[in-house]
Specification:
endoplasmic reticulum; transmembrane; 1 helix; rod-shaped; Selenoprotein_S; transmembrane helix; membrane; 71 residues
Length: 71
């Protein structure tokens, strides 16, 4: 009978748990970087309040209003 076998199993389980934790932390960091990148890409679009519509046949420049912004 091997007495050290349970110790080996416990060490392997601990190593697996530590590896999973490291992987999860890396995934969380990647998700945060992606979220920040998306926020930076969207922010300039939300900053527009209105823009002129090119080629207006009536000759009057109507404005497009950003519906996402409150009046």
């Amino acid at each position: 009978m091997k007495r050290s076998e349970p110790d080996v199993v416990v060490r392997r389980q601990e190593a697996l748990a530590a590896a999973r934790l490291r992987m999860q932390e890396e995934l969380n960091a990647q998700a945060e970087r992606y979220k920040e990148k998306q926020r930076q890409a969207i922010t300039p679009c939300l900053g527009k309040e209105a823009e002129l519509v090119p080629g207006d046949p009536a000759g009057e420049a109507r404005q497009q209003v950003d519906e996402a912004k409150p009046p």
